[in-house]
Amino acid sequence: MEGRAVLSNQGMISNTELLSRYDQRVPRYTSYPTAPHFHPGVQEAAYRRWLAELDPGIPLSLYVHVPFCDSLCWFCGCHTKIVRRYAPVATYLELLLREIGLVADALTGRRWVCHLHLGGGTPTMLAAADLERLFAALRGTFDMDPDADIAVEIDPRALTHDSVAALGRVGVNRASLGLQDLDPRVQKAVNRVQSLEETQDIATALRRAGVGSLNIDLMYGLPHQTITGMRATIDAVMGLAPERVCLFGYAHVPWMKRHQRLIDEAALPGPEDRFAQYMAATERLQEAGYVWIGLDHFALPDDPLAVALRERRLHRNFQGYTTDEASARLGFGPSAIGGLPQGFVQNVTAMPAYRTAIEAGQLPVQRGLALSDDDRLQSAVIEQLMCYLEVDLEAICRRFGCSADVFDDAVAGLAEPVADGLVTIEGGMIRVSPQGRPFVRTICAQFDGYLAPGTQRHAHAV
Ligand SMILES: C[S@@+](CC[C@H](N)C(=O)[O-])C[C@H]1O[C@@H](n2cnc3c(N)ncnc32)[C@H](O)[C@@H]1O
Ligand code: SF4
User: Which end of the chain is more exposed for a tag (fewer CB within 10 A), N or C?
Assistant: First the structure.
């Protein structure tokens, strides 16, 4: 790997040293508190109460999970199931439609929606006619803002032109296409063979169907991946002219995702190579004119995500960085997570339990968490750091009506990253330096009131 080093207050410090100190197993902070801290004390009754209490004036954001794919990528960390027949997908749609009705009944009155995200799995496993039924149900239940952001995750290998046309008809205006890496050796090692041409074909068809914004998902840290191969992938992806790119570090968690054992661990890059891949990819994407957002998102300068960064309207949720400002987000489908002003709820993950609950007319909540004032304060600090790489503790504490002293221990815990040149502290202003940016999750962990060191089993920070 390239021998970069940063100048710390104690002299030069190598990447090896930085990684050994800061590449810790920490959460990705797509929520705070993070999902492992949700508990079964929050059940359907709490969710029903929270829904009924929602201020009718606030816009909603909806997340719909479709937990099916037609082939298994061995790296996959998502909640999904491989299906060979359409019957389970068709059956699932009926349950999903019932769940939408159940949630709507628990709300007081009709609500308006400013964001809708279909994720998975692969939502386009739904046949064109079923996709239209789903949207008809959503539009029949909620008032969709004419400018609503309507996004869908797509596996370009499994998409017909029929489905692309349906996506256009139902009003999808942003599509996120999984690509990962174009190197044939990497693709074979993860059981995801996907050509540039088929991705290009779908991207062109989506644009023609009126889907105005495209995102491409790339990954680093996969088996046999190289910097040269990643640069070639990025250069090829630039030909698709996506408005956004996500660059995810492969989270290898075979104790949670058993199929990841199919991946040859000996072919996985070590921490230093992963880091070099990440940095090389961030450089290439910036050279291509993309604005680097937070940890792992990139957007063209006039894309709403880059504008939100400049205008300090950026947020982070389970889909990553977002312009979604809704304070209430409802999740539908197994494993889906909802975030309301009162707290989080997560649906059951297993399909049989989901079906049983829906057929009994129950909201299929498995667990959740009611937010405390401390949670809200810590969440605000962590979200600022994840989005803007800086946080004004005094300003946040003023907003919450407390003294910044509450963070004295967290700030004291930053002494080492400060000495290593990763963080600066001036009064209540904490800034993550360019060298500290890849480790921002580890820096956020100082403000995480739930993290007992050594007890969590997350993927590495970089
Ligand atoms: C749920 S998939 C949705 C898209 C679609 N199913 C596909 O794969 O093309 C979203 C993205 O998550 C990323 N991803 C999946 N498993 C991951 C893992 N273990 N670590 C990091 N990123 C992962 C991939 O980049 C993938 O494109
Ligand atoms: S297509 Fe997407 S969700 Fe399905 S297995 Fe592959 S990465 Fe996972």
Answer: N
Q: Tokens 């995810």 appear where?
A: 248
The per-residue pLDDT for range 310-362, each reduced to its tens digit, is: 999 999 998 899 999 899 999 999 999 999 999 999 999 999 999 999 999 99
Q: Shortest CA distance to 459 belongs to which of 78, 26, 3?
A: 26
Distance 122 CA to ligand 1 centre (A): 10
Q: Please give the angle made by the CA atoms of 162, 319 and 145, to the nearest 5 degrees.
A: 65
Number of the ligand 1 atom closest to the C-alpha atom of 249: 21
Q: Distance between CA 305 and CA 62 in Å, rounded?
A: 19
How many other C-beta atoms lie within 10 A of the C-beta of residue 275? 27
d(CA 158, CA 154): 8
- Out of 314, 338, 362, pick the residue that ends a domain: 338
CA–chain centroid gap for 432, Å, is: 21
| pTM (whole model) above 0.85 | yes
Position in ligand 1 atom list of the atom nearest CA 178: 9
Both 25 and 41 in one domain: the answer is: no
Q: For ligand 2, is residue 122 a contact (CB within 6 Å)? A: yes
- Domain hosting 57: range is 37-338
AA identity, residue 175: A
